[in-house]
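Quick one:
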Amino acid sequence: MDSHRWLVILWITIILSFQYSNNVEGRHHTSKKHKSKSPSSGSPAYAPSPDDSASESPDNPPPVPSDPSNPPSPPDTGNSTSINGCTFDVTSFGAVGDGNTDDTDAFRAAWKAACQVESALLLVPSGYQFMIYSTIFSGPCKPGLVFQVDGVLMAPNGPDCWPEADSKQQWLVFYRLDDMTLTGTGTIEGNGQEWWNLPCKPHMGPHGSTLPGPCDSPALLRFFMSSNLVVRGLQIQNSPKFHMKFDGCEGVIIDKLSISSPKLSPNTDGIHIQDTRLVGIYNSVIGNGDDCISIGPGCSDVDIEGVTCGPSHGISIGSLGVQHSQACVSNITVRNAIIKDSDNGVRIKTWQGGSGSVTGISFENIQMENVRNCIIVDQYYCLSKACRNETSAVYVTDLTFRNIKGTYDVRSPPIHFACSDTVACTNITMSEVELLPFEGELVDDPFCWNAYGVQETLTIPPIDCLQDGLPETLGESSRYGC
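Output:
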């Protein structure tokens, strides 16, 4: 029996070795265009922005995406050839990479060529600094495309350098793609400093003043109506606004990223997702001036693990239900995370007057270090004093907080459940929650309003305000489910 088994293993090994040698022989080629003339110094042709209002799932749903709980193996970033495909080096298309020359046309040409080849690799080589203007990298492309950034890829330096014809809502957009990877050992630099100083909300103007209205600042990277995406290994920093944004996507793996911007940089969310499902965010370090990770309406089946946040505004679901809209969020898991020196820990925030539901949310094994509002549900979220209390609200139910430990900033209660007057928060489970003051003494007990749930273990500090059972009006509130 043993000799027969070894004979089978030997036979399989011979077959695999033969197939591998054929594959290697077939991919010893690299396709590069002849170097083109240097791109013109003028602004690139305007690429229209995808309509934000269209950030819904495609009419024809993509195939079943990768399982976020089982991330695929990373591409070999040490080798500039893709498996079975061809390498398209941007310098072969005229990119200069001196940090000043406009390399936009070269990147567009390289993308157009790589997009047409299966398992192609678009290479941004190390040792260069490439400056490009707002661009949409559009699909559909052949499957297996890898965009590998080993050098520095950077945006124009502030609003004064931004062409009038270009969208100020976004810098790089990846649109209608399937089976695409953005990876590398390099840096994506947003040059956001001048944007942060704009004298408009939420930015600060002279002498602490602001001008009315939001700032017109671009998100750094946007993935729109795409599926089966992998983003891995990059340093992404100093974005004018959101560092990464996913709209209308399905099947996303984010792994081993470093995202950074200063603590006071406004509206610089690390990773924002909306209308997106089947997402895995793993093993990343994020420090910025807003939410570390923000989860907007239309998101489901999101797994976040091994993330370190801080400084930041924590990991947030919301805000949801703005301007009486319906918001549906479900099956979100955050585990084995560290949140430090942040204004919030784990948070759910909704506007009065919205509808829909937030359900199936689990926060587990989270270490807090000097965090305000470690655990917070705020159904009275408002950016001004003019918000009124309304009857309708997003229904929040099935929340689990398990093994949440560490220290909190005593300026705010460590646990805060402010639920709607008419639509209670229900099925809240608290287990092994131990939060102690970072400095000073415990000054505030946990706060609860219309919140129902159970304590599986004694909570520190004790949360006596959580009500047992279910509210009498549960039947009415259940209509807010999605």
